[in-house]
Write a structure and sequence with these properties.
homodimer
Chain lengths: ~425, ~425
């Protein structure tokens, strides 16, 4: 009698979906390999707080392999996947080695997209990774530092103009937090400029901010932003990003700091499979989240598009990715037991966005909240979903400090060239 | 009657010395400009804990201008000083502008030095800035990740060999912490390698570790390191650092991670003044800390060399720089009042070094401590000297977690090239 080989599951991507798949496979008779290009899982919903100097990177990121230290059947690999060998049942890696799978789970996420204008990226970085966040943080803080040294009024004004393109949750949260940074945190810190005079401009191509929310919450969000001093420009599609600023409506808005929060593009997983996608490159998967023609391959999270309740697509948010990861784990376990499982059904638990201190919107479907109560629920919910007691304690302490003293602790200009290198004054980071 | 211009003090450098000067000048009738190339003050004594993934950058660094937000007479500038115009009483900055001074305080610190072999730096980075710390952290963590993927035993062994050059306090603290990282924090995290098999080698040219401490404490420190699994090689001057490893005694020790903790070189302040220095480039100042021939220019901290009690030079540590900063502020105030002040006298309050959990050495002069009690005093003292309640709370929480769960939260590989870029496998960082 020979020992039977255990079922091999390869999970590509350690975001919310991939992590949940591995978590929910605990106890199953499988060998799991989790591959990611980075060594850490990020709590994406708070990444904008790293970009705006409210939190440190280690408060919203956890080393992946530490999360599975007590699961000997889980191997974590820091590597880049270069494709999928469908015939061989193998995932080739960047150094020529490959991983054999019986079941493959693609949870490779998305990057920001520039509607075909990738040349805008150096001037308008997006926010997906920890490096993105520290890059944006450096640019925001350096703009104030440069302005303090600048004598030319036009240049100074461009330095003190911060443009956020896209008024979805990330754009709204960035705009609100940058406004608070300028108007409260930094207000007494400079001697030649008044940070409160900074312009924060939120540009949106559509009709309203937070388009995915009910209209009354959108209106509340816009008014809240305006009361924080954010200029909201709606129906304003951006037609160019340069070192000078942002072009829309034929005009150039002079701004040294532009942040892109306007669109995402799925990771190249669909290309690896040669499978059909939507316009944003998201894989079209079957109702059980498998790739058409490949029941052994699952794809989840921002990598895919799938219809949710009422015919609306499942949104690209953390709870959706986690539910999909849980579904995949359930189905793998059922198959190992020779059983089947019902197709994936998405349960929308609600939408939350923070605009500023004491200002947030929540849409639970059955009830809508806004203002201080919504803000407290937002805070408690986000702390609850962090991993581990330590991160929860430390984020709570940092928020307490921000709330009571308006001090943001992570105001450090690091990474990249030394701060006074002339090249950092240009649009190109790293 | 015209308003009399206030006395202008320019302080170059926001380390311990510069900060203390500005702090102690509170209430004096002076206008102060604090210039630094970075936007933050660093708590240097704990920088090695950032390099070894125990603490986050924002826990030991504070934005300089935030520290003086309530002092309207203090202007903070993020800029590089390029020299001193002695005749004009001006400090030129990197963009052609300049700062007029009545009193100039040079507190520009030191960088690590390679005994004339600057070509070793890419292979053996030193530890002075936050970027240095995250670079070293990335190298240490990447070495384990690379080893997990490596099949060749010789390469794997080189990846799992960590060499620290120089057994002063920084070298000892780095070696001890890396040993704990490998032996406890990471012990269950890998599947193909056993991190406990990592070699940590501390190489010292001199006769003993912690040469500045009494001999019994040196012996205790060496034995403690050895019990943590550190190989201590004494009387071993390094004659080369390459991408392959470290050369000493005619042999090459194959190691992918080499950290330099062997020597410092003063910043170029002496060159700006054309003033005499010691062999390490440190300015020779008068007993009142002024530069010979220039009573209006002070130099303090690691920029200078000065004799302390018993003819021994004042050590290059934080308390010495702070005492010097306080002396300068006192003398400036006295001069403004038309009085004089006694020369600078250094009071040595003690030397502390941590080796590992429950292991530290303290030399107060009148009493010497080692072991668990010394470790607790070390911890309390370091928390006490951090700035602000928030940082103290958060560092305490992180240490509690490290102490009870062996988990180090800041194990994030960030900055620089993407983790799987081949260039990170080479010796050159950034």
């Amino acid at each position: 009698m020979t020992a039977r080989r255990r079922h091999r599951v390869v999970v590509v991507g350690g975001g919310f979906g991939g992590l949940e798949t591995v978590n929910r496979l605990a106890g199953a008779s499988v060998d799991i390999t989790l591959v990611d290009q980075r060594n850490h899982h990020i709590f994406q919903p708070l990444l904008y707080q790293v970009a705006t100097a409210s939190l440190a990177t280690s408060e919203i990121a956890w080393p992946l392999r530490a999360l599975f230290r007590d699961r000997p059947e889980v191997t974590t690999l820091l590597a880049a996947v270069t494709g999928v060998d469908l015939a061989g049942g193998r995932v080739p890696l960047d150094r020529g080695e490959s991983l054999d799978y019986d079941t493959l789970v693609l949870a490779t996420g998305a990057r920001h997209a520039y509607f075909g204008h990738e040349e805008w990226e150096p001037f308008a970085p997006g926010l997906k990774t920890l490096e993105d966040a520290t890059t944006i943080r450096r640019r925001i803080l350096m703009a104030f530092e440069e302005a303090e040294r600048e004598d030319d009024p036009a240049t100074r004004s461009a330095l003190l103009t911060f443009v956020i393109v896209g008024a979805g949750p990330t754009g709204v949260e960035l705009a609100g937090t940058i406004a608070e940074l300028a108007r409260t945190t930094l207000k007494s810190d400079f001697r030649r400029i008044d940070p409160r005079s900074a312009r924060i401009v939120l540009i949106e191509a559509g009709l309203r901010v937070l388009a995915g929310y009910p209209e009354d919450l959108s209106t509340y969000a816009r008014r809240s932003l305006e009361s924080l001093g954010v200029e909201v420009e709606l129906l304003a599609p951006v037609t160019g990003c340069t070192g000078e600023g942002v072009v829309h409506g034929g005009r150039t808005l002079a701004a040294r700091t532009v942040i892109w929060a306007a669109g995402v593009k799925a990771s190249p997983a669909a290309g690896w499979l040669g499978a059909p996608t939507d316009a944003s490159g998201r894989l079209k998967v079957l109702p059980d989240l498998t790739v058409p023609g490949h029941p052994e391959i699952f794809a989840i999270g921002d990598t895919v598009t799938i219809e949710g309740p009422a015919g609306k697509p499942v949104p690209g948010i953390a709870p959706a990715a986690k539910q999909q990861g849980a579904h995949v784990a359930r189905l793998i376990k059922a198959r190992l037991a020779g059983a089947s499982a019902p197709p994936f059904v998405y349960h929308h638990q609600g939408s939350l966005a923070q605009i500023g201190k004491q200002r947030a919107v929540i849409d639970f479907g059955w009830i809508r909240l806004r203002g201080a109560l919504a803000w407290w629920i937002w805070g408690v919910a986000h702390i609850y979903f962090l991993i581990g007691v330590r991160a929860r304690l430390i984020v709570a302490i940092n928020w307490l400090w921000i709330h009571t003293l308006d001090q943001r602790s992570a105001r450090l200009i690091t990474q990249g060239q030394p701060p006074v290198d002339p090249s950092t004054r240009k649009g190109v980071a790293r």
